[in-house]
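---------- Forwarded message ----------

FYI, see the DUF5991 domain-containing protein record below. Original note from H. follows.
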Amino acid sequence: MKKLPAGTPSIGMMIAAAAAVLPNPATAQVAGWNGRYVWEEDVGRHGGTTPSDSVVAFITYTLSIGPGNGPTGCLLTGQGFQTNRRIQCTVTPRGNAITVKFYKFGADNVGGRYPSGQPLFTLTRTPRGIVTSLNGLGASSRTTPHRGMLFRRAG
């Protein structure tokens, strides 16, 4: 076997260096989803003695994906009627869809229980728009569908 001159990188080192500069397909798929997505859930009318005296309550969920959104690059907040959620999440790509999974709660989170890695929901790109399929993140109202055009791209 022929010896390489001193200072010549080994085959293993060259393969590792090449792998470091080649794009990871999963990372590229997630990067295609970078941005902000919003879902405003109507949780019904509350208060008052008649429907006209009551107020319509909402919970606004904001999903932020990409650099600057915590150590996992994924942050989900839910704020509104009796809700204050701040969740660090992860994103798993699968074809034209991503699954958003629970990682851990933020310091100021109020309420909720999820095991680490639990799928919260899936977003799928379709010709009509983004379709949401709710999993661990349940709807707050009985009238909210568990699948449909819930989240929309907001930036």
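H. also flagged this: The two ends are 58 Å apart (CA to CA).
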